[in-house]
């Protein structure tokens, strides 16, 4: 390469002395020398979209423009239709604009129509779309079809992990991760492994995997995404300073990383920096109006006694759920949690029962248990809340909210010792998990009082690593 650069320089001068002989280089050869081809607009996003890795919004926009132009002139280009559909999915996910999803489905189905067989790229896109819409049964079906078409296609495995997790099949998620680790390595796989480790209660393993993923990320958008997830892990264990640092770094690297911005709001509120927290939430919601962010901001306002401002956010949540439904998105989980605490608990029960039938994941078990409690059915509520926290049968994630829900249900069921244990556990896992619920947990603990002399001492829940994988089924 060094010699070539020198020859280019000589060509510009037009002559060089070699062995005492003046050699004249033909200038035309330099004129016609091929120049490096600059990547087309959005080309940097192609590999990210194909691998299911976060891409920047600017790169996604460029990629979409380029592929839309391509399929207009080459409507039989199945690959371009598949890439376009996957890009729409990622854009919809990153902006919380569900209007992208019907466009994605149209592009992906066109790809499958053009190339009906062995079109694993389009099948992957359909699985990604179904996961984005929270239709985990469909995601599982599309993902398994993609693997049938191309068994060693590693990019399908992360999509199946998400689908199995959403369905509460944690054994299948772990088996799928094991297969993925044999096929591929890299920061994207490390980040996916972190999610599985987190769901199994292996928080330190999850944190280490995310740290490695962020360090090895291939683009700012990817690095910011893994930092945001690391911030979430720190938040879940109540490490506010570390969580804030990671969220802030994610936003610095990628200002469009709105999940990290909402994470900043959550963490700043816990630190008592309320004005900053409100500002971060408002910006995140303006750019990525997720119903979950509206619920969190509304509850923060409510904790401050600003009920009218809270109601504005709750109205926004309902409006966003309606808009999402038009794009095929299933928001029943967040809507059910909202209705249980701030609306109609009986409506929450109906919604979440149906959701449990569709996709019985741990988050749905927790939400349904809480809705049943709020509707006055503590006997059935206890069954679902126990499923959500049963470390043997799937509920291995250490969640302060799940422990709080279980403890409050047990308190009202006059199960004093378990109630005290689970409320204490909630505050030990994350003493800041909710601006509304932490004071209620503390009040409930105070009312329960100290253990009686003959009351069994609280015991630690066995670690999931000690539980054989063949014991029981998820959910």
CATH architectural category of the domain at 331-475: Alpha Horseshoe
Question: CATH-wise, what's the superfamily of the domain at 331-475?
Answer: Tetratricopeptide repeat domain
Q: In terms of per-residue confidence, which ranges show pLDDT below 50 for 5 or more consecutive residues?
A: 1-41, 458-475
Largest sheet properties:
2 strands, antiparallel
What's the CATH topology name of the domain at 331-475? Serine Threonine Protein Phosphatase 5, Tetratricopeptide repeat
Number of helices: 25
* Annotation, overall tally of beta strands: 2
Please write the string of helix (H) and strand (E) elements: HEEHHHHHHHHHHHHHHHHHHHHHHHH
User: How confident is the prediction overall: mean pLDDT?
Assistant: 88
List keywords for this structure.
disordered C terminus, mainly alpha, 2 strands, Serine Threonine Protein Phosphatase 5, Tetratricopeptide repeat, about 475 residues, two-stranded antiparallel sheet, globular
């Amino acid at each position: 390469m060094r010699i070539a650069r020198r020859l280019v320089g000589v060509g510009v001068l037009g002559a060089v002395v070699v062995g005492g002989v003046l050699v004249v280089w033909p200038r035309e050869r330099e004129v016609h020398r091929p120049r490096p081809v600059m990547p087309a607009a959005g080309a940097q996003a192609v590999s990210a979209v194909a691998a299911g890795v976060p891409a920047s919004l600017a790169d996604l926009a460029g990629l979409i423009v380029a592929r839309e132009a391509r399929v207009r002139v080459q409507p039989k280009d199945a690959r371009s239709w598949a890439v376009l559909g996957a890009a729409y999915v990622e854009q919809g996910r990153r902006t919380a604009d569900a209007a992208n999803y019907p466009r994605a489905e149209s592009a992906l189905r066109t790809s499958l129509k053009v190339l009906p067989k062995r079109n694993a790229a389009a099948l992957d896109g359909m699985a990604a779309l179904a996961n984005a819409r929270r239709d985990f049964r469909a995601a599982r079906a599309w993902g398994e079809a993609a693997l049938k078409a191309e068994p060693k296609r590693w990019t399908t495995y992360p999509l199946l992990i998400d689908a199995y997790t959403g369905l509460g099949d944690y054994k299948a998620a772990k088996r799928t991760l094991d297969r993925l680790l044999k096929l591929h390595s890299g920061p994207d796989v490390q980040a996916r492994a972190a999610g599985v480790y987190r769901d199994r209660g292996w928080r330190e393993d999850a944190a280490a995997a995310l740290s490695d993923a962020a360090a090895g990320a291939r683009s700012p958008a990817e690095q910011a995404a893994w930092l945001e997830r690391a911030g979430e892990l720190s938040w879940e264990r109540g490490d506010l300073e570390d969580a804030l640092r990671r969220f802030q770094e994610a936003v610095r690297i990628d200002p469009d990383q709105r999940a990290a911005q909402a994470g900043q709001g959550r963490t700043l509120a816990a630190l008592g920096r309320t004005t900053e927290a409100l500002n971060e939430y408002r910006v995140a919601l303006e750019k990525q109006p997720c119903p979950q962010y509206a619920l969190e901001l509304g509850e923060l306002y409510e904790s401050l006694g600003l009920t009218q401002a809270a109601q504005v956010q709750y109205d926004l949540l309902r409006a966003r759920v309606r808009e999402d439904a038009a794009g095929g998105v299933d928001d029943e989980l967040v809507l059910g949690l909202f209705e249980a605490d701030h609306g109609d608990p009986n409506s929450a029960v109906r919604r979440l029962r149906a959701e449990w039938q569709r996709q019985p994941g741990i988050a749905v078990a927790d939400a349904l248990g809480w809705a049943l409690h709020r509707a006055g059915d503590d006997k059935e509520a206890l069954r679902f809340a126990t499923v959500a926290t049963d470390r043997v049968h799937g509920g291995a994630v250490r969640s302060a909210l799940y422990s709080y829900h279980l403890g409050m249900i047990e308190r009202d069921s006059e199960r004093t010792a378990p109630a005290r244990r689970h409320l204490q556990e909630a505050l030990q896992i994350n003493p800041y998990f909710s601006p509304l619920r932490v004071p209620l947990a503390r009040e409930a603990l105070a009312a329960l009082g100290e253990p009686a002399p003959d009351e069994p001492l609280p015991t630690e829940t066995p670690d999931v690593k000690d539980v054989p994988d063949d014991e029981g089924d998820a959910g």
